[in-house]
Every structure is written in structure tokens, then in C-alpha cells.
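DM between two lab members

TW: hey, do you still have the ATP-binding protein entry open?
JB: yeah, one sec
JB: this one, 562 aa:
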Amino acid sequence: MKSSHRFPLRRQIVWGMRFFTILTSLAVGAALFTLSNQYVRANSLQAAEFNLRLVATSIETSLESADALLNWASIDSTVRRYISQENINGTQTIAAYEAMQEKYYSSTLYSHILRFFVTNENDRHLQFGPLNSSAALNRTSVKQFLTKGYGMQFATDPLLPGSPSCIAISQPVRCGKGTLHRGSTYLALDTAIITDPAAGYSLTDGSALYWEMGSRLWQIENGSLTEIENPLREVDYTLRTGSNNGVTEQTAWQGKVQLDGQKYYVVKVTLNGRSAALVQLLPANTFLLHYGVYLWLVALGTAIIWGLSFLMQHWLERVITRPVEALQKRIETVGSGNFAPDRTVEWNNELGDIGRGINQLAENVDSLMTRRVEDERRKQELEYRMLQNEVNPHFIYNTLNSIRWMATIQQYRYGGDLEIEVSRIESETLCRDCMIPRFTLQPLVENAIFHGLEPKGGHGSVLLDISTDPDTGDVLLRITDDGVGMPPEQVAHLLDEPAEGAEKAEKFRHVGLWNVNRRIRYSFGEGYGLTIESEEDVGTEVTIRLPYQQKGDTHAADITGG
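TW: and the structure you got?
JB:
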């Protein structure tokens, strides 16, 4: 039967191809846009990093020259003798002065040096630089240069009021094994060692170049340094590393920051061994200037995808949709019960193989169904006979013993105290017309006598009640005894399959109940079988539920009267 909500294959292919084309276009466009964005951004950031590294290298060269000058002043024997010996003559003083003068004028930093001196921080000082308006050094003024300790820092010259900030580098002079403090060396450089290398630095609109030292920040602009409030303290930097001859080395730091509602990228290159760095700020919208070409590429790629999609759709309809519809009709024909082969669906391709398979399947289904029905019938008969064979010896044994036991009572023990009778029959037609499987009542009556009445002395009654269920019309046979009864936990397992290690007498009772219940359910279904109710010292009631089977009805199982 065809559903009114079917979604035909042709429509699925059409809409599937359109949906696929749209998704592919979006995916390709997004991928190209993302890749171009990443490419442009990565190239821009790498270019900024490279340019910053060039400027940083130039600044590092100057600072290394400054370190070399200070180191020379700290270790030169003539200068150290001048500031460390207690008694010094004029010749030694002149020699130390000339040595420092020669080093000062020969330094590559000569044009950038604002002040250069070495001192024992008491009464001996050697000083050079353009210091015409400076006060002389003495024990008190020297300490003003060293109030912030040794190292590199931005400072103003305390003896040149109104002078611009400079880069001050100082270090101690030690004698002996490096533990005895003899004095200090000091070098002040103008900020041109930073601004000159950055003079030709190219910045895009909105970009900015900074010099960062410690937690302070200066903007490099128009050949000068201007200290500003540091907005980059909270930037979450990521370290980029590179490899040089298999050795991983630091290249630069990259991060992002939001300033005045605008997104910026930050590139920072630190100077080796110093707490200083060059920082460039690049606005994120700078990269959008390069996207025009990539957008044209995205549009061209999308158009090509759509054209290929329509060609693919036409081809799929010819080689798949139409053959599949023919196969569908063939399957519907087979499903309706017509198993005759149809050779028109046996094309010379894989779908033709399916058509040949459907034809072969149709030829085999009929014989397979016939064999299946016959096998099931034989299987049911075999299992039923196995159950019948299993219970027969037990019933024969019980029947023989019942005859012997009942005779002995009659003669010696109970006389007429044992009563077995039909207490009620709802309708005589039930006894006359209804059929029940063989060996159904016998084992239940025997169980009532042997296991219900015998343990209490053999006297009592076994009553049989025959009626029908008014709701379902099923036949109900109730066997009731007033014997010793059973506890609930025993009743709960009476219809389970008997365990191998059970005692003989208990196993006989268990096998009988389980076998009868199993045969009834096998013959008529899970809704039929035995129901057991029992109470200790009161008695037991077993109810057999059977379908109303009249004489002449047929059933897979053997239901001849028992």
C-alpha cells in the first residue's frame, strides 16, 4: 500500500542535490573565507613580527655595546686601580682618565652617550659626556644616580634639570673574587637608540608601535618616546616558537585585546636577556582590506559547484531514479503474491543484478515458505511427542501406585474416608462436547492424593469443578484438595523447569505439574495453562485454563481426551 506521505526518490534526489549544493557552497565559501582570513592575518602578524625583530636586533646591538662599555670600565685594571687603591698618584689618575677618554670616544655609541662615569661612590670619579651645564659629581650626587638600583631603566639626569628622559644602565664594580664592592659604573643614553631604528617602520592606519619596559609603556611616534598608560597589561599572550637547526627557540608573543570597543591584535618581541620589548598594535579590520579577491574566488567556486550539481542531478535521474522506480514496482508485485519472474528489470549493471536477484528471490520464496511451514509443523509435533514421552513413564508409575495405594486404604486403613468426586459441572455439554489433552487431569489428581492427602493420614477429599469463564469463554477445571497445602515460596516455583538434583518424590510432582503446564501452553498459547493456589494446613487448588475445543476441532498438538 502506498503511503499518502511518500517522498518520491526523484524528489529526494532533486532536493538532496540542492541541499547538498547549498551546504557545499556554504562550506566551501566558509572554508575559503576562513582560510583566507587566517592566511591574511597570519601573514600580517608574521610581517609585523619580522619587522619588530629587525628593529629589536638593532636596539639589542646598541645595548650590547653599552654593556660592553660598562664591563670594560668594571674590569680594566687601570680604571679599577684608580677607584680601588687607597693611595693614588697623579700619574695613575691621568692614566685612568686617558684610558676612559679613549674608550669613550671610540665607542659606537659616542653620539648617543649623555653621561658616562665610574666612581668609588666616595671621592674618586671619572666622567665623560656633553655635561657643560651639569654640576660636578661628589659623594652625595652619585647616590642620586643609583637610588633605583642597578640595571636598565628610564630615568632623567638628576644633575641636568629639565633634561629629557634617557636610558640609564648601571652596574657595580667588584674586586677580588667578585664579592668586594669597590664602586659603580653608569651610562646614560639618549632615546635615539630606540627611535632611530624605528624611524623607517611602516604602520598601517590604526596601528601603533610601543616600547615596553617593566610595566611601563611608551609610544614610538615621530622620532620620540611618549609614555602612556599601559592598556596591554591584561593581554593574554600566546608564545610563538620556531625551529632553528632542530632547536626550538622563542620568536614572538601574540595576543588580542579590546580597546574602546574595537578588537586589536598584539605582537610583542622581547629583547634577549632584558625586561624590555617592542610591541605593535594592529586593528582587526585592517585585514578586511585584503578580502575582495578572496570573495570573488568564493563566488566563482560557488557558481562552478551549482553548475556541476545540475549536471549530476540529470545523470543520477537517468541511471538511478528510473531504474529504482522499476525495481520498486517489481518488489510491490512480489509483495502482492505474484512470484512470476520479470526479465525487464535485469539490466546490464549493478541495478540489473538487483533485478535478477529479486526474480531469483521471488522464485525461491514460494518453495521456502512451503518448506518452512512443513518444518514448523514437524518441529511442533516432535517437541510435543518429546513432552508426551517424558511424562508417560511418570504417569504409568503413578497410576500403578495409585491403584495399589487406594486398594490398601480401602482394605486396611481408611475405609471410605477418601473422597474423589466431581463437585460441580456448569453444563453437561462441557463433558459431552469439550476435548482436553491427554494426561492433564490424572497427574494433578495423583499429586493431590500423594502430596496433599497422604501426609495428613490419607483421608480427605479431592473435588473437581468444571465451568467456563464468562468473560472469555475458556474452560476452567479446578481440582481442590483439603490436604496439607504448601508455603508460598514453594508454590512460586512449582511451574519452573525441574532441577536436576531434586529429590525423587518432589521431582515427580514437579515434573508432572511443569509438563502439563508446558504442553497446554505449547498447544494453545501463553494465555493458557495452570494456576496454583495453596495455603499450609488448608489445602491446594489447581486451575486448568483451556480453550473451548469441541469434538472435530483440529490442532497442531494431540488433544485426544484424557
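TW: got it. The CA atoms of residues 400 and 439 lie 15 Å apart. Confidence is low (pLDDT under 50) at residues 392-404, 410-414, 555-562.
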